[in-house]
Amino acid sequence: MQQKLKTYPWVWLLWLAGFYTVWLYLVLVLGYWPEAKAHWPIAVAMAIGSYAAGATPMGGGTVGFPVLVLLFELPATLGRDFSFAVQAIGMTSASIFILARRQPIAWAMLKGAMLGSLIGTPLGIWFIAPYIPELWIKLVFAVVWASFGILHLYRVNEIAHHSGMTEINEKWDFNIGCWIGLLSGAAVAAVTGVGIDMVLYTALVLLCRTDLKIAIPTSVIIMAFTSVLGVLVKNLTTGMQSGVFENWLAAAPVVALGAPLGVYIVALIGRKPTLLVVAFLCVMQYLWTMYSEHDHLGLTGMLLSALAVILCLIGFEQLRCWGKRRNALPKAAKIYPIPQRKPPQSIGSSTDAI
């Protein structure tokens, strides 16, 4: 029996109208159009990045960071702050789109992650990120994303076939979410501008064996929350890096549509092809980083980076083993199915496909 869910596409359209009104005011009334026009390359790059942000558990900074840092050779700190700024628009737009469509969310773990991020992200911005060298920021990004990409290259079939969500109790999920938000907000998102979404997603699909239709929208929302929080904390305390605003002006109007478009288009073509493409790009950016920084790293540094990737993969496999054991306990765990919808008639009522 199908359960028809009422959707609210007008909420997302209202958000878009408000955002573009503000952006047009900035570029036309306040005269920032030359700055936006001069930074058009980042807008082109984020057209791809924003699609990946909405269609996968990887924020738009997954493309924005390496483009600015590796291709344009700008400081890693600028790439981090730009990731926060551009995701505050793109991921927020995608989150409103997801919520307006009433997509299923892992609410217990998401609420815990938001609480943890609320504490961990500011602490990381104030007490961890300022002391991380530029090279280490690049390496943290390269290692985490490479391990995530490799995981999907060899586990994507298993991940894509999960159904519903294994849940022992909401308190347990909430507590796990708190630790994920606290640790990844402080040690990953505060340092690179991205990543908390990938950590939460990984816990959902490996530990809770969660359906991609639940895990990816949940990861989008936590990255939106953390990005907005990061922008607020940095603007009110440490300040954003020079150049972030100009790049943001060029990219923001693209990601405001691109990320929700990724949410919608992936429902038509499926998530697996997109995940494989982005996973491949994650591995390529790691190789690119190793090549561009080989003089600074030396053979020892490159070997330690490869070891860090292996350790991340071992951690992922351990989560997967725990998840399989949890799933084998039918008396303690429940499998929560996804409410089915009728075939989509409009953007507001479309159904995700694996």
From TrEMBL:
Q: Where does the chain cross the membrane?
A: 12-33, 39-72, 84-100, 106-128, 135-154, 174-207, 214-233, 248-267, 274-291, 297-316
Q: Which UniProt keywords apply?
A: Cell membrane, Membrane, Transmembrane, Transmembrane helix
Q: Does the keyword Cell membrane apply?
A: yes
Q: Which domain of life is it from?
A: Bacteria
Predominant localisation class? membrane
What Pfam families does the record tag this protein with?
TauE
* Keyword Nucleotidyltransferase in record: no
Topology in the membrane? Multi-pass membrane protein
Q: Where in the cell is it found?
A: Cell membrane; Membrane
InterPro entries, per the entry: TM_pro_TauE-like (IPR002781)
Spell out the PANTHER family in the cross-references.
MEMBRANE TRANSPORTER PROTEIN
Q: Which family does it belong to?
A: Belongs to the 4-toluene sulfonate uptake permease (TSUP) (TC 2.A.102) family.
Which protein, by its recorded name, is this? Probable membrane transporter protein
